[in-house]
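Hey, can you fold this one?
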Amino acid sequence: MAAEPSPGLRILLHQHQKDRAPVHISSHADRDRVLEIFKGALSRSGLPSEFAWQTVQDAIKPQAENEADRMDWVDKIRGVIASLLQSPFLEQHRTGHEDAPVRGYAYGSGRDLSVGDVYRRLEDDTIKGQDDALRILREISGNDLCAECGAPDPDWASLNLGILLCIGCSGAHRNLGVHISKVRSITLDVKVWESTVLDLFRGLGNAYCNSVWEEMLQHQHERTNESDSLLLITKLGPTDPVAKKEKYIQAKYVEKLFVNREATDSEVPSSAARIWEAVKSKDIREVYHLIVVSDANINTSYDEVDGCDLCHLQSTAEFQNGLKTSDKSRYDPALCQRIKESNDSASCLQGWSLLHLACHNDDWVMVELLLLFGADINKCDFHGRTPLHHCVSRGNNSLAKYLLRRGARSSLKDGGGLTALERAMERGAITDERLFILLTERE
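Sure. Predicted structure:
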């Protein structure tokens, strides 16, 4: 998550500074005591993921979406408080004296900052984060114009399609449903624009995405069949009416009317084999292309790719369909001959999904793309291991936390009867506090 406070947090901080009575600090002991008081106030409240923030006049009880977000809010509020209390002789005045100097503020440039400067700096940092995302996204090829109608300076986006849109076309995309297009604002939905999502957009962009979704339309001048209905369709313009935009966008993404669909050819590798190789080679554009133009299944498993390399006769589906606990013991990864011989838990690929493979590659951008297109985040391999199991078993805590934030279930047990938490504990004490909290959260 970005270092600067979210807009909601910034508003709370500003309101707190505006309303509170003065805090006078005349010694190191006073400073430490006040800091402890604030720390005590920033504790868990009664509801899940809620925390109390006690001001002089009243209590504020925000509720975060989950435990990880709650910790992030608390950490950032504590950070600002600690920064404001760096000076042993700091004196913060009432509203109307906002410009009293604050020495040693951690975010400053060495000069004295007023309390008002501090909060203006927080606001500026948040706006800067929004501007940075907008600048990065618009610098990508074709992203200076709306992907649909060519309107300048688009400030909306479709996350899974990887394109930027004007506000008019974003409405038409919303009407398609989230299973087709996940629409977000670049300037309002600031939490969405993590570095992984920005990297995904860098790998795609309006120009490339339209070369896939509008290939037939872009090459229609090469077609000679005058009866072809495509010859009657032209690219949208910024001033086209809403009804025309909706019809065009429906034809483009639901009917895939302008996509150059792949013909079935027995002499070329299957779509499952090709998308597996594309994920393996971290080719984000080829994976995107195959998802759009072929019948590739986003939950393709290794069994469909190379049925000759399977070392177990039992079906992966038997485990996934819920055998009795006693029957599941034969799926224990500790009993797998291939894993025992190689001493590598990743040596048995049977039942692996594309998401398992992307996690094994530590390819965050690929993981994001697969999830946006509907990959099953809790899909089990032959040994009952989810992508989360794989990440914690290999010590990839950062990606494990990412999966948990995206909805991975920590309570699922693998063929050995162990959850992801128990697999993580096999590696020793869990020193990552946030990972521990996410793994132990109730689903």
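The chain has a mean pLDDT of 75. Let me know if you want another pass with a different chain boundary.
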